[in-house]
Amino acid sequence: xxxxxxxxxxxxxxxxxxxxxxxxxxxxxxxxxxxxxxxxxxxxxxxxxxxxxxxxxxxxxxxxxxxxxxxxxxxxxxxxxxxxxxxxxxxxxxxxxxxxxxxxxxxxxxxxxxxxxxxxxxxxxxxxxxxxxxxxxxxxxxxxx
Amino acid sequence: xxxxxxxxxxxxxxxxxxxxxxxxxxxxxxxxxxxxxxxxxxxxxxxxxxxxxxxxxxxxxxxxxxxxxxxxxxxxxxxxxxxxxxxxxxxxxxxxxxxxxxxxxxxxxxxxxxxxxxxxxxxxxxxx
Lengths: 145, 128
Known about the structure:
heterodimer; A: alpha+beta; Thiol Ester Dehydrase, Chain A; 5 strands; B: alpha+beta; five-stranded antiparallel beta sheet; 4 helices; 27% helix
């Protein structure tokens, strides 16, 4: 069954994520990124950012908290067994620092019905505790029929 | 660092046996296709595959290592075109294709050890 295009524009509850310094370090090590901006407290203190910052792609860590409700959405009813991550786009604005509280909103930005598959795109917008934009992510998933 | 059109840079990452497990823990992506070899075989793969966003993070790292400042990366996008398997070696090459409005546009090639593109249409923008 095709994904109903009436869900384009549907929004999901906002989520606020507190960025932990140790979580940044765990993530940086997981992606094999040893940049001292993420791992070295002394280096980070002397850097222009003044503290540990998150790798740009850390946006998908706080973003994941918005993706899960879409996957679990009973009304949307995505066939998870047939779903794969097709494309990803990330834009970065203010750098994310340890201790930030990042609030993210999510909406379904597009649904395309094709012969053998559906394509669904989600747009996530994240701001920090100062109300400044930190990232925008577009997640595109392909669901085979 | 002076950035010029046509400039190239490279990065390389070996996907060690436990990489998908580390990434699962750090990112929360515990999809069984990434952590359970039996599940991978059941769905027709030769074991587990790495999370696509981990491969994208490798590509982003190549760009930020080159730029020297993670805050200069302003955009990155890709299409996930082929699964990355455990023990694969991922090679990234970036080329500055355009300089405009304070941004360098970089096209990236992200391939496995067979030369197969695991990500396609990989583009980044770096502040200059």
